[in-house]
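Reproducibility note. Readers wishing to regenerate the assembly model reported in the main text can use the exact inputs given here. Chain order matters: entities are listed in the order in which they were concatenated for prediction.
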Amino acid sequence: EDQVTQSPEALRLQEGESSSLNCSYTVSGLRGLFWYRQDPGKGPEFLFTLYSAGEEKEKERLKATLTKKESFLHITAPKPEDSATYLCAVQVSAGGTSYGKLTFGQGTILTVHP
Amino acid sequence: SAVISQKPSRDICQRGTSLTIQCQVDSQVTMMFWYRQQPGQSLTLIATANQGSEATYESGFVIDKFPISRPNLTFSTLTVSNMSPEDSSIYLCSVPAGGADTQYFGPGTRLTVL
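Running the prediction on these inputs yields the following structure tokens for the assembly.
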């Protein structure tokens, strides 16, 4: 069974204090690992898709990296507007009806204080 | 990217009634996904809706409880039938884009069952 575990559950940072969120996964065959940002009362907002170990992607203050067992979302010099829940999800490389399905972790609630 | 709208954005319903949620996409897509996000929880896939075929349901979800229609390539509905307070959740539709390399989510429908 595909499993995705995110840590920590909640993270409080001061503005400018860099940190990382972790997403560890166990899947039969990884096709892609997705990162999303979700603000309260809204649908998840797509951030990145990573496909292979060693891959990195950046967007503003966020950088996502991938290994064979986990992914990190690094937040550099965060601002209060970065406060949100960050979700990771895996997509397996199975055909048929499973194709496209995302299995999500529980999320990390990030709060950045000014 | 894909622009996805959902109706209603929120509703409060009585136990035993049914609610139909609509999902409209601004482009034609073969696959659409319906997810549920229970309070304080992450997203769980309910079913995959392909145009022209029966929806495929995940373990724990059945067609009698969550019937889905997919009349064309830009629209789908999810009905939550015979509702109970345990059905109080946010319901989200999602579509893949870029060859399933990305998945976009709608804004969600917040359902409260009394």
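We highlight two features of this model. The interface with chain A takes residues 1, 4, 31, 33, 41-45, 48, 56, 58, 92, 94, 96, 100-108, 110 of chain B (CB under 8 Å). Residues 17-105 of chain B form a domain with the Immunoglobulin-like fold (CATH 2.60.40.10).
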